[in-house]
Specification:
Layout: H1 3-6, H2 8-12, H3 16-33, H4 39-52, H5 62-77
Helix pairs in contact: 3-4, 3-5, 4-5
Length: 82
Amino acid sequence: MDLAHERIDEIRGDHRQHKMRLAQLVPGLVREFSGRLGDQEIRQIADEILVSYDDVPVRSFVLTLANRRAREIIKQRSAMPA
């Protein structure tokens, strides 16, 4: 059996990639939207979006998609024009 089949639950339970993506995503969002929403709220939005991608089989574009979605939500919540 291959690694993915034997250890799929363990691999899915590893949150290092999630934390790494969060660390890449949040600073740019905070720089861009500082003063519109608090840093913690921005981080929470980014975290919730990334969680929604945790079970996708291919994660090549997760950061790009999460960044786009986070920016949309932050703009909506801060009543910024799109």
